[in-house]
Amino acid sequence: MTSTATTTSTGTMRAALRYPHFRRLIVGLGVSQAGDWLYNVALLAFVFDRTHSSAWMSATTAARVLPIVILGPIGGVLADRFDRRQLMIGSDLLRAACMLALAAIAVLGLPVALAPLFAGLATVAAAPYAPCVAATTPRLVRDEDLPGANAARSVLGPVCIVAGPALGAVLLLLGSPTLAFALNAGTFLVSALAVAAIPAGPIFAPTARVADEPRSSVLADVTVGARALRRHPEAMRLVGADLLCSVVYGAETVLLLLVSGRLGLGSAGYGYLLAGMGAGGVLAPLVAGRAARASRPRVVLAAALAAVAVPLPLLSVSPSLAVCLAAMVCGGAGGVLVEVMTETTLQRVLDEDVFALAYGFAFPAAVAGIVVGSVLAAPLTALLGLGGALTTIGALVLVYAAALLRPSRAAAPALLVEAFAG
What's the mean pLDDT in 193-206? Predict the structure, then answer.
């Protein structure tokens, strides 16, 4: 591990990026995530062009997202048992193959039903990747620089929200989904090369528990991961907070279309609002290191959740795009801050021997939250209207934030993730 210069403030993204091996990991992660976002645009455009069916688009989205929710704990088991460098490289190569298959489907005019199939297979191949990255990061940087490292990882998502779909739209104008699929295959190859550039060795080795003990069943390892989370109420609180932020994001992917229509901006406004969310996510890491060192982390977490929740009603009443953009910036910053605090706390409070197994629950919980939010958005709007839906979702987040500030009920918020953790 390379030490950072003494003149660099600890806990910042700049400090974390002074570690060469971590930089390579971030490069690969950033390239593949940007490719994923442009591929999302191209995939839905391709399916809609072939079917003109919203049902097909919904089925494609489900095939792309649900495998990570279902197989997430299995991905954690793989990250716990096998060399993580080999798993990440293998995952990238399999996903590149799936993208090339999608390109072939588009070029050869093969049945459109193959598109969601290979999209789902790409997601299956990705199952161990996030646990591998999260479990490897503490071995690449010093503990004091973990907040900066996690901030650097978290900021990739908001940046890609802005850059990926924009690039995808340009590619669709210049060529076809085939070009986007092929380019995404290339991003996975670049990611594999970036990980391969990190020397093999103890950084990626399975945990000592796996090396020293007879191999248990997959079900037994999944149970170990669930129990590891339940034994740490602080970790459960944070996973619950991250899950709620994901619910908000999932709902916003649907409701922001209505907000944009209310502002008279159409689909362009939807892009502006998503860009505002991404900009907030880029700003959040500036305070992530300080937040991670706060003497009262529950207060900081509650404040971050309030930043997500309070602006939501404004989106339904303000006639100003500037105000709505400010609300999205605030919400995006709060959501990423919660994500950084969750990642850092999990890495610090969970034993390395069980971290990958526990993360196999925590990461899919966040993805499941996105699915739940997107599914609930339409019926909530039909029942309560746009303003009622946004206010209700915001109120749920604020109730959770208030519960975090009650020491006598410190473990109560963990109930949100108890069912998911088994």
Answer: 91
